[in-house]
Structure formats: C-alpha cells, structure tokens
Amino acid sequence: MDSTLAYIDQGSFLGLRALGRGPLAQCGWIYEHPVDLDALRRFHHNLGYGLLGRRVERSPLPFGRDRWVRWTGPADVDIAATVRPRGEAMAWLDEQLRVPIDPERGPSWRLAMQPLETGGAVIALVVSHTVCDGLGVIQAIGQAASGQTWDLGYPQPGARTRAQALRQDAAAILRSIPDFANAVVAAVRLARSNLGELSSSAGRSAPAPTSLDGARSVTVPSVVAQIDEAQWKNCMESLGGTSNSLFAGIGAKMGQVFGRVDDNGLVRLQFPVSERTEGDTRANALTGITVMIDPADVTASLRDVRAELKRNLAALSEARFELLGPVALAPLVPLSLARRLEGMALGAGAPVGCSNLGKLDASVNRPDGTDAEYLVLRQIESRTTADILDRLGGTMFLVSGQVNGKVSLSISSWRRGGPNSKEELQATFVQVLDEFGLTATIQ
Fold first, then answer.
1. What is the pLDDT of residues 197-232, one digit of tens each?
2. In the CATH scheme, what architecture does the domain 222-373+396-442 have?
3. Is the separation of the CB atoms in 12 and 286 below 8 Å?
4. SUPFAM superfamilies of this UniProt entry (predicted)?
C-alpha cells in the first residue's frame, strides 16, 4: 500500500497547518434507551482498523509529500463520569467539537459518550476532515458497526529512518514533476477565469495562526432537525423535485433569509461530489459543483432547482479539472501563500455549503448494535473565532442523511456582525421548513 498522501489530502493538511484550523465531521447518536458498553467498545476498536486508522507523518523535506502511518485511535471510549439532563444533549455535542483534534499529532479522531439522566446516552464521533471526508466517515462507521475491519497496510510511526525518508521523498518529488507541470497549466487557467475572485479574496486573507484561548474561540451556532422520511418524500414529490433538490431548496431559502445572496438575489450553493470507489483509501475522495439558485419560488416548485443540479452534474468533468487541476502543487505551496488563497478557496460572495449524504445503511445508526433514536450529522470549523468568521463573511453549512425512517438535517450558521444565537437560528429554520410544509423534531 502506497502510504503517500493524495494531492487533495496534502492540500487539506496544508490548509490546516497554514490556518491553524480546519473542518471537523461529527456524527452523534442520541439514545433514549441504555447503551451496550461492550458493543460500543467493539465499535471503537473496529474504527481504528479502517479508514480512520491513520494519522499524518511529515516528510523531512520542506516540499516533500507527507505520508500516512498507522494509528488505531485512543485507548478507549471517553465516557463521562456524571450524568446530564436529556435537554443538554446538543450542548454536550457542541462541547465535543472543542476538544482538540489533530491529524498529525493526534488524536485524529475520538469517540465519547455522555450518560443521560433518563437512562439513555449521547455518543459522539469527531473526525478531522483531513483524515476522512463525510462519505468516508459514514463508510468507516458502517463497517465498524457491522464488525468489519480493514488493514490499510500503513507502516508504524517512525518506521523510516531519516536517511530512508530523505531518499524516498526526494525520488517521489522527481516522479511528480509531470504532475507539477500539468498543475501549473491548470492553475494559470483557473487564475485567468477567476480574476475577480482572486482580487476579492485578498481582503479575506488569513493572518498567521496563533494559539486560541477558550475565551476567544467560538462554536458556530447549529440546529438539528429530524423529519419523518415519508413526509420528506411527499414534499419533494409534490414540488416536482428529488431529495437532493429539496435539500438544495431549503439551503437556498436559508441563505436568502440570512442575506447570503448576490446582486441578482441568487444563492450560491456548493456541493461536494463523491468520487469514492471500492477500496479507495483517499481521505478526501471528492470534487464539487457550484449551483446558483433563485430562492424566490423554491417553496412552490423545485423543478428549476432540479434542472440546475442536473446541468451542473453533467458538466462536472470540466469543472473537476478547474477545481482539482492545481492540487498537485500543494506540496510546493508556502503556508503564507496558502493563507492568502483561503478566500478564493471558499468561493466568491457568500456561498452556502451543502452536503447531502443520502440514504444511509442501517448500520450507521447502530454504534452499539441497536438503533439510536436520533442521528446527528454535522460539519463545523474547529478552533475559530468571531473575528475570523466575520472576516470570511460568515458561514452557512447544511448536512443531511436518511436512516431509520428519518431525515436528519442540520444547519450551522454565522452571520457577519451578528446576531448569532442558536435560538434565532432555530426559529428561522423552523419557519423555513414550515414554508415547505415540513414539520420537524428539533434537537
């Protein structure tokens, strides 16, 4: 097994080190009945023998490509010693996002459990996006819950001597020269077609990362809704859409309400598109599309949204080259330049991130072998501050997945300059869902 990071994973790690922060994937399970601790510990063990069972080991060369090494996870599930009220389940999940996660120094992922006064518990899995993307995490969860393990064949940390590492990484750089040449061509093409974004992104350049104290760091407000799957299906069919276009319509409407529109009143939705194949060990096996949606009538019809999604997916091969063509340059990019490019990477204007994980295998909802009553799926930036979020123009990200007869739909949002309260976000989210005729249980 080649343990060298794929170029896109190298880029993800570069961004993390340049900015001092990066996105986290969180899967949470809320149990209204007792959790089988023995089964949960087996699940925890199995997670370390799959796509999550690794961390990054740096190359000794300044521009060398880094490598994966084996790391099977923390010694045990982090189980809280005291119980908490059921009403604090989401607050506890928020707290888990503030526990340090690092794909190089570790832990690159962690599993924790909080017992509840009602006799159930909340379980949280938090993973660095550098180690695994959303669908990869879902795959790892399903395999671990089903008792499957996967030996990726990575070496132990420090298995190479410095001399070996220097020779091997220098040879890898020489082999990569054709990739670098192609990436330069792609980067020039990208720059020419995005001159406006390049200039506007300069004002959003990040400063060098500094250590954050607890007083300055913030957690982006987030709300999770659970919607009956039959109700969701009826809604999308009545509006002439699909599950993906209904999800996009909700994202567009939320973007409109929170002022994330361009001069024409359109909302820019950014969707990751998975390229993960059987046996794929890339951490981020994905590309993406950007869709411009008019939110004015999405609650009356989803046909235009559906057509726009279809058109962009059909043109994905060309868009993929523009998006991923330059990533081979990631090992060569200085951290200072990576910080200046952050604004461009986020996209022009005020995009809304959308990740629809679709229909999930039942095992994803069974970390202890039994169905959790509620599944929470989130992607949130770690170690950030109000100043950073305001400089970037705020943020909005939606995640959705369907399992156990429910659609789990989460939204995280930060509005530049505020107000930024979970209560306001919840009220707006409920109102938008109501406009679509959807009734949700809010966590």
1. 555 555 555 566 665 555 478 889 999 999 999 999
2. 2-Layer Sandwich (3.30)
3. no
4. CoA-dependent acyltransferases (SSF52777)
